[in-house]
Amino acid sequence: MTMPEVPAGTQALLFDCDGTMVDTMGVYRLGWDEVFARYGFDVTDEWFATWGGHSTAPFVRAALPDADAELVRQVAREGHDAFLANIHQVEAFEAVVAVARAHHGLLPLAIVSGGPRRAVVASLESVGIDHLFDIVVTVDDVAQGKPAPDAYVHAMERLGVDPSWCVAYEDSASGIASARDAGIVRIVDVRLHRD
Known about the structure:
By secondary structure, this protein is of the alpha/beta class. Helices cover 44% and strands 12% of the residues. The protein contains eight helices and seven strands, in the order ββααααβαβαβαβαβ.
């Protein structure tokens, strides 16, 4: 995978975590297959491709539309517990990590994730890259997760940067929509740069 050059004048680099910085989706899929099966929902490849980039609550509601708020929270906990039990299986996407390493200390770097903080931080720590980022913004920090723009808006406010001078790195339609709706025009879809 070869990433495009960072444009001159860029004020900050904003990276999604799952599927962009760290290859977690396969590990998540194993856990969610097991958890959702307990509730009578069969995860298909097509369903997971559609919903995999969403924040946890809408993800769970898509699988279990009749679930009340407490059941959504319970299933979310179970899914993230299953993920954390297998955290040792995640790997970094080295081409994206190389961008962060090359700009660490030169530009503000942020993780902007639709996942919960405990899973995001554990993922970054498991591959030894948590120290590269000035801030980590997760669904726990905002009113609405991706595809809403809240997490990107929050990250840019904390960094004090203008969205028109930021670059976002994403791997899903919901993440791209989140960055775009936050005013970011330079968005790298990392799926287009995988070998």
